[in-house]
Amino acid sequence: MNDAIRTSVLERFLRYVKINTQSAEGAEGNPSTPCQWDLLNLLKDELVALGLSDVSLSDKGVLSAFLPSNVESTHPAAPPIAFLAHVDTYPGTPGKDVKPQILANYDGKDIVLAGTGDVLSVQTNPELASYRGETVITTDGTTLLGSDDKSGVAEIMTALAIWRSHTELPHGPIKVAFTPDEEIGQGTAGFPPVAEFGVMAAYTLDGGPEGEVENETFCADTAIMTFTGKDVHPGYAKGKMVNAIRAATFFISQLPGDALPETTEGEQGYLHPISVQGDVTRVVVPFLVRDFALEGLKTREGILEAIAQTTREKFPGLTIDMEIKHSYKNMRYYLDKEPRAVELAMKAVSNTGLTPMLHRIRGGTDGSRLSEMGLPTPNLFAGGRNFHSVQEWVPLSAMEKAVRVVLELGRLWSIEK
Predict the structure, then answer these.
(1) What's the angle, vertex CA 10, arms to CA 368 and CA 379, rounded to 5?
(2) Which residue of the set 88, 155, 183, 338 is catalytic?
(3) Domain 219-327 grouped into CATH 1.10.10.10
């Protein structure tokens, strides 16, 4: 069966990544870009062709379907579960006209990306060497690959196809859902109410190396800092002008050097200015505020307020307003209410011959918000590396193992009560 899984997941993955699905920050509506409908509609047709029931594509771009239990006679109370992935790709790196490179029997050496001549090096990607003799898929260097999260999409679709063709493999009731706009933080904007969706637990397939089970995400806010100065003719500005651009620049320069994305790792949170927009009169700078604990989140927002006060004192007449927008909480706060979600994921990984690794995500997934909404949703590996990058790559064996974990989770939940 492993050969069948590899063949199916590779064929699906290559078909999906060639469809442009970049989301767009700040765009109106869900999905944020019309191109996402192309993949959603294709997946809808494929779900119908597989014979799933209740196939539905909402006007918000949420595609869902249902696979009835095949253990109804022996385990009628098997809890329903779900598998989820997002169809959009990161908007900050080119994602149109993806040309994947397929390296069968990879030699374990540096890989030249055909579109640019750049090198995907083993020195900076030491994991590559462990896939010598296997199949590795990379970009051609001109675009991202789209493994985030079309690996997850392909893996779920392959698992469904396997269940449909191998009815001897036990599973309880299973729902699947594919969402748009996860990369811009809107992946659950059109998701149905948890009670209506009707499952006990869900799993996003949106992680990295094989074996990972992720049960924590950052707590996340966005702090929008607005600097309002005073503009006058620069020839007569002495003692009158308050330059909001200079004030914002000073503010950013005062951020603690050990609290930035580029200087933090592991359990450390950060403050991250993501854009600067404005003029002498008014400048707006949104900051991503991240910490694994709510208390740490508030501490970091306190740092911003302290810097704001210092900036006001340096630039008399300047006003600074800080607006906090909540994004999501650490999913750990909610997963503890249904411990089987993580416990069975760890067991499924182990049962498929992998070493389970329980990790924190230095980011967020749709599962962050879904868990907060009342649906426990840990994140599983999907196999990709160097997400959001023109050097993105994924080993085929990792995708095959992700499919096997999905199949095993179906079996494990089918014997739960």
Answers:
(1) 15
(2) 88
(3) no
pTM of this structure: 0.89
Active site residue 168: no
- 140, 155, 181, 182: the active-site residue: 182
Q: b or e along 271-304 (b: 16 or more beta carbons within 10 Å of the residue's beta carbon)?
A: bbbeeeebebebbbbbbbbbbbbeebbeebbeeb
Q: Where do the structural domains in the chain lie, given as residue ranges?
A: 2-217+330-414, 219-327
| pLDDT tens series, the chain, 417 aa | 778 899 999 999 999 999 999 999 888 889 999 999 999 999 999 999 999 999 999 999 999 999 999 999 888 889 999 999 999 999 999 999 999 999 999 999 999 999 999 999 999 999 999 999 999 999 999 999 999 999 999 999 999 999 999 999 999 999 999 999 999 988 999 999 999 999 999 999 999 999 999 999 999 999 999 999 999 999 999 999 999 999 999 999 999 999 999 999 999 999 999 999 999 999 999 999 999 999 999 999 999 999 999 999 999 999 999 999 988 889 998 998 899 999 999 999 999 999 999 999 887 788 988 999 999 999 999 999 999 999 999 999 999 999 999 999 999 999 998
Active site residue 118: no
Return the CATH superfamily for domain 2-217+330-414: Zn peptidases (3.40.630.10)
Q: For residue 297, what are its two tokens?
A: 């989140």
